[in-house]
Predict the structure.
Amino acid sequence: MRPEREFVRFTRLQRTLHACMIVSFLSLATTGLTLKFSYTGWAVTVSRLLGGFQTAGFIHRSAAILMFGVFSAHLYGLVRLRRGEYKSWRALLFGPNTMLPTRQDLHQFIGTMKWFVGRGPRPQYGRWTYWEKFDYFAVFWGIAIIGSTGLTLWFPVFFTRFIPGSFINVATIIHSDEALLATGFIFTVHFFNTHLRPEKFPMDTTVFTGHMPLKELKRDKPLEYEALVASGELESHLEEPQPEIVVRTIRAFAWIALSIGFSIIVWIIYAMLFAYR
Amino acid sequence: MATTSSRWAATRLVWAGLLLFVLGASSAPAADVTNDDCLACHSDKTMTTKRGGRTVSLFLDGKKFGGSVHNALSCTSCHADLEGKDLPHDAPLARVQCGTCHSDEQKQHAASLHGRAIAKGDPLAPHCVDCHGNHDILPVKDRHSAVAPLNVPFVCGRCHREGTPVQLNRNIDQHNILENYSESIHGEAVLKKGLIVAATCVSCHTPHNILPHTDPNSSINRRNIAATCTKCHAEIEEVHRKTIRGELWEKEAHVLPACPDCHQPHKVRNVYYSQGMADADCMRCHGNEKLKASDGRSLFVSAAEIAGSRHARPRTQATPVACSQCHSEVNASRVRPCETITHPVDCSKCHEQQGQQYQRSKHGQLLAAADKTAPSCKECHGTHHILDKQDPESPSFSTNVPTLCARCHREGQKAAVRYTGAQHEIVQHYTESIHGKGLLKSGLTVTATCTSCHTAHMVLPHTDPESTVNPKNIPATCGACHHGIQEQFVESIHSASITQTEKALPVCSDCHSAHSIRRTDETGFKLDIMDKCGRCHEEIAKTYFDTYHGKVSRLGYTGTAKCYDCHGAHDIQRVTDPRSHLSRANVVATCQKCHANATRRFAGYLTHATHHDPKKYPFLYWTFWGMTTLLVSTFVFGGLHTLLWLPKALEMRRELRAEDARADAEKSGAETGEKDVASKDGDHAG
């Protein structure tokens, strides 16, 4: 029997970038937090496991380069997307599948709130929900803030040609707290929203495999589904499922990433609540 | 004139002047020259004459002359050749003949070494005036007299000390006379204790009848020396064990040892005996290996051991140290000379300084308190086989010192169990320390051992203000070797000479520890130092750990800036001090030690900043709280969203499960219908 074909939600580039982002982000978080929480015994142990502070610093900077790479590749992907699928920036940015927040997102947010409190049905979401858009722009914001302060801390001698030395202190606070926000948010809210929601528990692998069961598309993204059916393009977005070995590998990778993320959350909570100075 | 020394020229001029003066005064009415006549010219301070190319004063202080022993005499009494001459007189005058009055002294002097030298025309030979002076001669009993007992060594020493023409050019077989004398018991009594009855040069050599010791008439001739010494040491023969019947010493001086055979001239010390009793007398019994005391102790003394010891070739005497020099209470008139011994050997008789130090030390205090565990000299130095501390075999040779001290100070040993302070496992710690490794592993004999810091003989607890390891003295103690460091330290803010405070200032050992001193380039030391500084500088250390350098070093990385990298180690100054490494002029260079191209702006980085202080660091404070607000609000929003979602999501999950179950049931129902006949077992399993 032929397996049921699945809807392709993410391109190969997007999936690769997400995987790279995970590697980069976890490395940055682990190495960075050892420094932030250097007063805990855990930090010293982790730093030693990573090969000492210098190696940890090297990993942190390498991961930062990878992150910048991911970001650039994504921008390049957008350019390619405009040339290929969308033909114009206008279609890409203001079409029905835009990542930019729209009036519809506001309505859906209100609708979702009502649904949460039992005052209405679950809104009919399109390709990108408002929380997905929030996550997406959080990365833009994070890269801008953490990236710029990070570069300042990386090359303080160069930057203090233009800014006062005490701004390095300010950059440290911003870099470290913004990173705390990013790690905290990704490892809790983002994990829940996209991977761990009870209806998808324990793991939603869509972002890794790129595939989404058609049934799920109909249920979670009805607007997109209907649009695709109406335009008759649905068939062109369906593909054979990934081979079993690929899915297994992906699951293993995802589980490792998730565990690291949760460990970091536990560590953060411990450091903030029980060892804070 | 040309052959005589310039001093002579001067003296003669004075005489000459006086003579002229007397003559001049007498010339007018009669032939009588009065002192006033002389002073009429010679009281002029500017009165000079040229002699041998030198300007010589002819001034005579009337007051001094008035105070002299000769004040009642007229000038012409001495300057006899002025008698009846016209004034002003011709220069020069003849030499004054003191013998006119002091005929005995003059005679003795003429026959003495000095007088004979004068007769030979020796320009270095002293005349009366060289010792006694001229117009200002005081009575001998006057302590200002040039020949008063306290001044005699200096008068004689003018010629008889190292480096003078006399000592260099004349045949004198004694050396360092004045130095040795000043260290001798006589010299010490005269010069240090002002004991005017103690022997000076003239007590032995006589004032005027000075003769070489080879001369049978000399007071220091072998025949006469006993008589000379007994002038003061009247009963000394009695003291010398009564073995020499009083007269023997003087009668048979050629047979018996004379005083200086034991008490070397000029070096006279109460303990410089050479042989009191023959060692052979002692060895007659103590050479027996089986000799035992009543309590079972062996009383055997190995002659070979003694022969190999330092005392076999002492520095202070030509002959080996004799048994009786240490075991001094022996009485050779007894059959068993040692039966009169009542006290243990007292090394301080010779090693006086060490003895004094020992008595002051903790070891000495314990001994004085009759503590059985107290170490005396022999516990460290041994007894008959004492070796020089330069001898590698000696227990006090530097590489052996730790083992020596460890005998008592190792954990569990008698000194360690008594100790109540904080220093434990000192021997092991020392061995592992940089000093211990330097000494014991690298064999570097100049490395600090126990005694380098604690001293060998004046070991005192650190609480004693005189102790070398008292905090007050530690910089000097360490500075004995680490002098360059001490120089920096005493100028630093931590030095007690710079900072006046009630609080305890840190000294070397507070950062470097006492016995476990580590290399400062070791990781452990580098990481510990911040806590060490933090013991006093609590707040500033805390904020240091809030910033990058501190956080990094918390993680165990030593390459980052630690306290001393910026503030200096031993030369720490207030940051407002221009000498400070962090002063405005120096701070950029200090940053550049690590951050090669650092600028002044870069130096503005706050290395001790905290975001908890809104007054001192407002923008850090507000940045922190701005970020915290952002964090908290984002988490509150995200968290609420998630929490509200959770029940709905669970509901959905239940519905989906039910849906799936229905779908499965429909599917399996259809499949069961098809396969019903084919497999009954499969049905059971489902």
